[in-house]
Every structure is written in C-alpha cells, then in structure tokens.
Amino acid sequence: MSERVKPIYAKGFFSMDTQGVVKQYTVFFYTDPDHYYAGLSKEELKRELNMLRRNMQQFLDEEVIRINGERVRARVIHVNVGLMTISTPFIEFLITFRGPLRSGLNTYDDEYEEEVTEYPYDILWWLPGKVVEVHMPGDINVMGNILLARVGSGIRVGGKESISFIVN
User: Fold this and answer.
1) Among 9, 37, 49, 138, which is disulfide-ready with 89 (CB 3.0 to 4.6 Å)?
2) From CA 28, how far away is CA 8, in angstroms rounded?
3) Considering the domain boundaries, does residue 43 fall inside one?
4) Structural domain for 29, as ranges
C-alpha cells in the first residue's frame, strides 16, 4: 500500500447465531490521491490481496477473543479491493470465528493493543439474545439484541472490550 493511501472511515458488521458462529464483514474506506489501487495490474492486485489478508490475519492473531471465557480464533476467509471512485478505494474483509454459547448470560470479550483512532468507524453487532451490558469506547446504542457503536477519530480504543447478552 502506498504511504499516501490514508484511511478515512470503517464499518464493521458482526452477526452471531445461536450456535456461537460469528460472521464479520468489515470495510475500510481510503483516500488515494495518487490512484495507487486504480493503477494495480491483475498480478499486482493479487499480491496486494495476499498481503492484506496476511496483515489482517496477523492483527487478528494478536487479539485475544473469548466467548464465555474460552479463547477463540478469528480467521480471514475473504478479502477484496474495490473503488468507489478512482481516488476512493475500499478494502473488504470477511472474517469468522466460533465460540460456545449457553442458555442465560453470555459474554464476548476482545482484548487488543490500545491505540488512538486515526479515523471514525461504526460497529454493528446482531446478537442471538438481548444485550444487557457493554464495555467499549464510543457512542453506544442498544436496541434489544442489536448494538451500534460509533467511534470518532482521536478516541483511545483497545484494552479489553466486552458485550454481555442473554440467550433463552
């Protein structure tokens, strides 16, 4: 990735089913004044996609994700690069992981290195039960089993985040 390609926004959608399978779709939007992504050949794009997949997987491997105390491993299953405009590329990731759920109270925990956000992002969780407690930065809005977190630029994130929810 060119040094002049800069992130401007990200959106993450997480859906957890009643079996504890999480399917995550995350897209990052960039400004690309030199049209780096638009100028990639097919072979260069293939190398870029492989590098993006490795980098995201490494980032995920450094996170400690737990569902009900059991460590789970997230895995990148797909990556794609697209263009909104010639100077506004986006990178999409499909990620999955699975953890044990039980009847009653369940907790998703994620620990990762603290940092200050360079760009705003939104996260939407669709969980298999009512959200009862959330510990994460940003403006949090809970509507039953749906959680929306809006995090602005310049916000300290990371450390330990958690979501507790009830499965009937």
Assistant:
1) 37
2) 8
3) yes
4) 6-167
32, amino acid identity: D
Question: Has residue 91 been placed in a domain?
Answer: yes
